[in-house]
Amino acid sequence: MKTRDQSQNTMMEHPKSNLRSQSSRQSGEKIDHGRWGRAWEVDWFSLASVIFLLLFAPLIVYYFVMSCDQYRCALTGPILDLYTGPSHLSDIWNRMQPINRRAVTIYTVWVTFQIILYMALPDFCHKFLPGYVGGVQEGARTPAGIINKYQINGLQAWIITHLLWLANAYYFHWFSPTIIFDNWIPLLWCANILGYAVSTFAMVKAYIFPTDAKDCKFTGNFFYNFMMGIEFNPRIGKWFDFKLFFNGRPGIIAWTLINLSYAAKQQELYGQVTNSMILVNVLQAIYVLDFFWNETWYLKTIDICHDHFGWYLGWGDCVWLPYLYTLQGLYLVYNPIQLPTAYAMGVLFLGLVGYYIFRMTNHQKDLFRRTDGNCTIWGKKPDYVECSYTSANGQRHYSKLLTSGFWGLARHFNYTGDLLGSLAYCLTCGFEHILPYFYIIYMTILLTHRCIRDEHRCSSKYGKGWGQYTIAVPYRLLPGTF
């Protein structure tokens, strides 16, 4: 699955002019056109991993949500009930709410509304918010050498959506603020339908009418193609980009609304909103707002720059992200916790420190890229390693890999900040159950794997230059340890 999903592109790419491409080819350098982007071939381990995820990822989501709905988020509850109690699998299944017309209507209206905000309302926030970059922006160069343009208006969509939500809650009363929680399981079936539908459509589209045939990769294996995707940047028309829309909306915009619905349900059930629920809402809202404030920067991350669009992103954005990234709030509805003040302040401090590291690490990289290294980081001129690579069209490009500031401490120090923030979310839930800690366990595995996957890609892309970089910055996540 995708990360929360501001996973970073560790290559810190800063393309230069292609004027040196001719001299590079004349010097006899070997040019490899296809060694970055998604894999061309599938080994047995990758195929086994793909099949495992296709089979069990939906079951994991179902099991977690069902455990909360029927066993107050006790992960062992269903298993113990089956083996020591009177229940059968059919009993657990029958107690789950089925899909219904109300849920279908809610979900259809939600997705349609986000499409309208994405397509029909050009960004105006950049015109009056200092420092915010929105409107039409260019993405990174694709493996085929293409630079796509994007309509950046996610912050605007988030603001409009949440203003309408708050206006309804306090004035119009069209629907209850608990509407998401009250229909959480029926909405799960709707999200699965959309996730599988968009993933299937993306695969069929790649065969019949791809946006750019040069940015497609076919492995010959159906399961790998379906999961990891074939098209690099599938689009409908000029502006509807599948990756940008599904990565950022509707899942991430829904994230903060889901938490608000959980808080409203806590208020309805117990007459108060606990400080733990407030912490979850505040810390995760900071992350979501950061995502949309830096949506232009997101165009340079691994999700956009390297991942193809398939089930991994399509279903992951529709189901995995909104249902598993919000587990802390869901847990606190069933298990309300009023944290001691000192403990709550410690969790808040950890979350803010994690966010500071996450944001400043990315800010340093962005500053370095924008100024071509003509800046100061931690009070001095930055150090870097210069590398080159060749895109699929045979052109030579050049990049600088930053080795100063946070990027001198570890090659993925942004992930370190991300993990600290993730841990803070989980700590809001106390220590009675393991379910809320799934998030930090998952993120640790995912980001560690992403470190290895990203570095393998960078090694293939940059060759000797990447080796020089790893000598300059020897650690991946934890300075002096890993």
Automatic annotation (TrEMBL):
Segments traversing the membrane: 44-65, 104-121, 155-172, 184-208, 244-262, 269-289, 341-358, 422-447
EC number, UniProt record: 1.3.1.21
Biased composition (Polar residues): 1-11
A GO-annotated cellular component: endoplasmic reticulum membrane
Annotated signal sequence range: none
GO biological process: brassinosteroid biosynthetic process; cholesterol biosynthetic process
GO MF annotation: an example: 7-dehydrocholesterol reductase activity
Endoplasmic reticulum found in the keyword field: yes
Region (Disordered): 1-29
Top-level EC class as recorded in UniProt: oxidoreductase
Cellular localization per UniProt: Endoplasmic reticulum membrane
Pathway listed: Steroid biosynthesis; cholesterol biosynthesis
Keyword Transmembrane helix among record annotations: yes
Topology of the protein relative to the lipid bilayer: Multi-pass membrane protein
Swiss-Prot/TrEMBL catalytic activity: cholesterol + NADP(+) = 7-dehydrocholesterol + NADPH + H(+); 7-dehydrodesmosterol + NADPH + H(+) = desmosterol + NADP(+)
Keywords, ordered alphabetically: Cholesterol biosynthesis, Cholesterol metabolism, Endoplasmic reticulum, Lipid biosynthesis, Lipid metabolism, Membrane, NADP, Oxidoreductase, Steroid biosynthesis, Steroid metabolism, Sterol biosynthesis, Sterol metabolism, Transmembrane, Transmembrane helix
Stated family: Belongs to the ERG4/ERG24 family.
Role summary: Catalyzes the last step of the cholesterol synthesis pathway, which transforms cholesta-5,7-dien-3beta-ol (7-dehydrocholesterol,7-DHC) into cholesterol by reducing the C7-C8 double bond of its sterol core. Can also metabolize cholesta-5,7,24-trien-3beta-ol (7-dehydrodemosterol, 7-DHD) to desmosterol, which is then metabolized by the Delta(24)-sterol reductase (DHCR24) to cholesterol.
Name assigned to this protein: 7-dehydrocholesterol reductase
Organism: Microcaecilia unicolor
Gene: DHCR7
